[in-house]
Design a protein that fits this description.
mainly alpha, two-stranded antiparallel ribbon, 5 helices, 58% helix
Length: 119
C-alpha cells in the first residue's frame, strides 16, 4: 500500500474544505455528535475525566465563569470586545489563575486569537 504525503498547502486546503462542509451541515453534525454522546456515555465520561486531570486550571476557570454567569455575578455583554459584532460570545482567559478576568470574544475573534492572528 502506498502512502500519500501531503504538502502543508494541501493539508490547509483539506482543513478548509472540511470546515466549510461542517458549517454547511452544522445541524446534521450536531445531531450526530449528540446521538454519539448518548450512545457512548462511558467514553464521554472517560474523555472528560482525562481532560479534567490534564487541564485542572482550565477546568476550574471555565466552571468558575459558568457558575458566576448562572449566579448573575458575571454579565455577558452583547458585543465582541475585539470587533464589536453582536453575537453569542466566548469567555477568553488570558490567565487561568484569574478565572473571572475574561475577555468576551465572538467565535471568529476567539479562534483568530488562538491561531495567533490577534493578541
Amino acid at each position: 500500500m502506498r502512502v500519500r504525503v501531503l504538502t502543508e498547502a494541501q493539508k490547509e486546503r483539506a482543513r478548509e474544505r472540511a470546515s466549510l462542509h461542517y458549517y454547511a451541515n452544522i445541524e446534521k453534525h450536531k445531531a450526530h455528535a449528540k446521538a454519539w454522546r448518548k450512545a457512548n456515555p462511558e467514553k464521554c465520561q472517560t474523555y472528560y475525566a482525562k481532560y479534567r486531570k490534564a487541564q485542572p486550571m482550565k477546568h476550574k476557570a471555565r466552571w468558575t465563569v459558568w457558575n458566576a454567569k448562572v449566579a448573575g455575578k458575571l454579565v455577558v455583554p452583547d458585543h465582541c470586545e475585539e470587533c464589536g459584532v453582536e453575537a453569542n460570545l466566548d469567555a477568553h482567559h488570558d490567565d487561568y489563575e484569574k478565572p473571572l478576568d475574561v475577555r468576551w470574544l465572538c467565535r471568529d475573534c476567539h479562534a483568530a486569537h488562538h491561531k495567533g492572528e490577534r493578541t
